[in-house]
Amino acid sequence: MKTILYIVWALFVAGVVFSLLYAARRTRRQQQQMASWPKAQATVTGSATGWTSGIGGASRNLRHFPTYQFTDPRGTLFMGKSEISGVQPPVPGALIEVAYNPADPNESLQVSSEPRTATGCLIAFFAVFAVASFWFIGIFPMG
């Protein structure tokens, strides 16, 4: 029976590692893209709302994704929606920094170190969780 628990644990850990690697690569790819893109000050125009998934028994929470507009050096107005959410709705008129693709300014991303920080925290959390769950399986009385 413990063998089954260890197999389930290994599959869970493999899934988490795959997910974290995917998220880290995506974040790194976006950071590399944004490094060469021009930056602009964008004005928050409002927000789009969405819900957290509520995975793991957590309660679902309403999240707000800022919508914004900015102009390129020629004065052309572009709009975008941030991938970075917050609990509180953003204040319309607030300024945020965005990076935009010079070949297609409709493609823009909010500049923030938050995704890297969140990924680092998730890695630390799941490492501790994996070790603790492995230890728990070892001491779990099977009878």
UniProtKB/TrEMBL annotation:
<keyword id="KW-0812">Transmembrane</keyword>
<feature type="transmembrane region" description="Helical">
    <location>
        <begin position="6"/>
        <end position="24"/>
    </location>
</feature>
<dbReference type="Pfam" id="PF12158">
    <property type="entry name" value="DUF3592"/>
</dbReference>
<feature type="transmembrane region" description="Helical">
    <location>
        <begin position="118"/>
        <end position="140"/>
    </location>
</feature>
<protein>
    <recommendedName>
        <fullName>DUF3592 domain-containing protein</fullName>
    </recommendedName>
</protein>
<feature type="domain" description="DUF3592">
    <location>
        <begin position="40"/>
        <end position="108"/>
    </location>
</feature>
<keyword id="KW-0472">Membrane</keyword>
<dbReference type="InterPro" id="IPR021994">
    <property type="entry name" value="DUF3592"/>
</dbReference>
<keyword id="KW-1133">Transmembrane helix</keyword>
